[in-house]
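A note from the maintainers: we've had questions about how concatenated examples are separated. There is no special marker in the raw files; a new sequence line simply starts the next protein. For clarity in this README we add a label.
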Amino acid sequence: MDNTKILEQIVQNTSTKTSTQTVVSDISTKIKTTFNPPIELDRTRKYEMALGNLETYYSFPNLSDENNDFRYSLGFIEGGSTRQRQWAEVQNSEGSYDLIDIAETIKISMKRNGHNHEAVKITANTNTLKSVMEISNNFIVDFRVRNSIASFIGFAQQIYKEGIHESQNVVNISSINSILVNVDVIGGSYVNGRTKNTIYRVFPNVSPGYKIVENPRNLVYLPVILDEINKMETVVADQNGKQFNLRGENLTIRYHLREI
């Protein structure tokens, strides 16, 4: 390397580096940001970005109209020469529940319907991570209905009669393994072997209803793939690419952009 190139390298290494903080916020997990004026980047230099901070509430539901139906029968209706089962349904409100919450909600709804709320008891087997359903007084539970709560508490979609039943599967309280923060101005990231614009991964360390505050100890920087940033899109999704329903709560993310 000649002296001129050495001097240029020294100047570049000792010159002031560009550094920019960007904060985006919305009640949606897809945030579109327009920069005015645009962020101009020197084409002769390289830049990288990291997630500096994320704040929101653990408000995304694990129970919705896709898995909230609990159908049960409390006996027969006598009508002439025929006997027909009397059925009732509980459709639990959208929200974030654990197994104890959902068991208590079902009991309250059955009592509100004027039915024996002690006839169906749902508890946890902490050793197997499965749920146990105890049915008495000739009640029947039907998990074959559409949008049944069956998978949520680990049961197969079938009819269960009086007795004690342990779920076939472990309780599926949360289908979320990871929260992925994706931003379309960076590269150099892979998810399951495929190129993605995922800048950060986190899993909530709080219970539903509490605030999530993520402050990475060591910022992980990924290369910026643009020469000028006019617009930027942030998408927060689970490990399957499904966006979260924040139910009106705010999501705030701070990014740090710097020159290498």
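[label: protein 2]
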Amino acid sequence: MIHEKNMQCPKCKSDLPKGQQTCFVCGHKLKGESEKKDNITTSSGKHFNVSQKNRLIAVLWMILPIAFLLLVLIVYGIVASIGMSGDFARGLNMTLAIFGIIGVLSIIVSIPMAIIFGSRRKEPVSQFDARSGRGEDSVFPSELKKWNWGAAGLPLIWGVYHSVWWCFIVFIPYVNWIWWIIMGLEGNKWAWEKRYWKSVEEFKAAQKKWMPWGIVFLFLPIVLSAFIFIYGIIATMRGSL
């Protein structure tokens, strides 16, 4: 153990200069300032994170079924707007209905699959901030108490990627209208608790990559809704003239 006034190797008991990290007599690694009990970095024990490959697979399990269902709905809307009729139209509508059912069932299946892949811990972690990745026992740094745009704008994709399973509340009617606010407020905290991070700087850099996409997908529905609303008013006014 390193003392304030002198140092001694705990293995061979040799006297060492203050600040020495390795005993030059027996080669024993000493616990220096970087490994004090109150230090935030550790490398002891076996620690694992969900590998990036598994995180991406989990995200794809959510994106692909949803994208497939949206595509079916878009095609159905186009067909309905054209006003097709006859045997071909009936057959096409039947096919789209079947695809719609497949899309819904795929989304139901994708949820447990995303959880499975998003929980497989295959990435060994040797050094990390000891305050992170410990669930409720984690210590959340005060400098991270900020709004998370990725969690707010892409709650489902961001949540699956970070193994934050609270994101599935977006499927609950009515609650999902305000859930994006909760995700934005608590996103940093949940992500910090779910995964081992090397440092606060690494965490900030990772969340910064989500920011532009989160902002776009957060405000895009608002802009589209406003456009549709204004278009409806204009169309109504023209119809009344």
